[in-house]
Amino acid sequence: MYLDCSVSALVKLRAQATALFREGIAASDPEQAVISALETKTDEIAAARRVILIAFGKAACPMARAALPFVGDKLVTAVAVTNFENLAEIEGVEVISGGHPLPDEGSIRGAEVIERAALSAETDDLVLVLVSGGGSALTCAPAAGIALADKIALNDTLIRCGADISEINAVRQLFSRLKGGRLAQLASRAKVLSLILSDVPGDDVGTVASGPTARPSATQAEAIAILDRYDLVKTLSPALKAHLDLLVERDEVAPSFDHVENLVIGSNGISLQRVMHSAEANYPVVVKADDWLSGDVSDVAKTLHRMAVFAASQRGPVAIVAGGEPTVRVAGNGKGGRNQELALRFALLNEWTSIKRPWVFLSGGTDGRDGPTDAAGAIVDAGSTTWMRKLGCNPVALLQNNDSYHALASSGDLLMTGATGTNVADLQILLMQ
């Protein structure tokens, strides 16, 4: 523990970090983002004969709610598929709960309803698609012959092998009826306007929710190469392997996307800029760690800790902020998520090389849920691991079992926000006095 740091100073730092995190979430508020975008699209809505509204992802409900006043009585079909934590009733919209991070029967039903809605689109119709993070799992439409269990096993394997989100989505597209632009192709007779809340690096519309309305982010050959890179082909179920063999036999045909407009209306970058701007009020020096944090979580923790040690040698209060999604290789059977593991690793690194100032480090998912847990992430300080040990926890052993949740719960360092209704990846905030 940093012995010269008063409790009140740490309480203040924690409060500031949490407030900045919530400001980052607010910067990509899905309702306001949809309103701002549709205010520029009133002519296109007016020109449409009918409007079909399709929303899916963790922000599906607020996005759909914001769109309704713009489409008015032209609306003929409206469906929203979201996770249970963000489920809300919306008059005139069929709302369906799907599974996340792993798809379930609700995800299958939601995808089927979306598929029917898209197929019903006719010439001069407008299909308004509202996409947010989590949509890949929430709308599960396996290709013919593939069962839900096959998709769940594939998704779990991809997450555990350490593949990043772009790689995961590229592979998912191989086995889906909606992903990789296939949703847009179902509505090829109509105009498709897709408003996208991005949770991926570079705001690639072909990657968010596995790109249902965008040209595929990876070719079929590139996606198969990802399976080879992680030695996953041999782990595929017979049904998945049979479908993969069928794809290899076929020649890829590039479909047209001339009828589609994809607009990114919110992103991690937008949230990060808000955090940086707000931090300047109390921190003369605000450092952006990277455009997008990626790679193994242990390497990310080391990079951020080195930055903190160096910053501590400078004068005055310092804030270091970052955004992205590190990856975790799951070797144990514990409970946690990438943000919790990043925070715990950071705290343990500080035991070896101490940051010579009062500090706090927050890492959290903007959706309010880190992995399969009820925590958004964690917020730690120099005393966190000391408290864990005093309370009978061995943080190193728990980390080795990928059980960061219980280590952080013991020290009271879990970041609990509840579902936020948005999803623009993760934010990391380090504050030091």
Verbal overview:
The chain is of the alpha/beta class and 433 residues long. Helices cover 42% and strands 17% of the residues. The chain is built from 17 helices and twelve strands. It has helices at 7-27, 30-38, 42-47, 60-71, 105-119, 135-138, 148-160, 165-174, 182-186, 220-229, 238-249, 268-279, 297-312, 338-352, 384-390, 395-400, 404-410, and strands at residues 51-56, 75-83, 94-98, 126-131, 191-197, 260-266, 285-288, 318-324, 359-365, 377-381, 414-415, 426-432. A six-stranded parallel β-sheet has the order 3-2-1-4-5-6, sandwiched between helices. The protein is globular and about 65 Å long. The two termini are 15 Å apart.
SSE inventory with pairings:
Blueprint: H1 7-27, H2 30-38, H3 42-47, E1 51-56, H4 60-71, E2 75-83, E3 94-98, H5 105-119, E4 126-131, H6 135-138, H7 148-160, H8 165-174, H9 182-186, E5 191-197, H10 220-229, H11 238-249, E6 260-266, H12 268-279, E7 285-288, H13 297-312, E8 318-324, H14 338-352, E9 359-365, E10 377-381, H15 384-390, H16 395-400, H17 404-410, E11 414-415, E12 426-432
Parallel strand pairs: 1-2, 1-4, 2-3, 4-5, 5-6, 7-8
Antiparallel strand pairs: 8-12, 9-10, 9-12, 10-11
Protein name: DUF4147 domain-containing protein
Domain MOFRL: 319-426
GO molecular function, one term: glycerate kinase activity
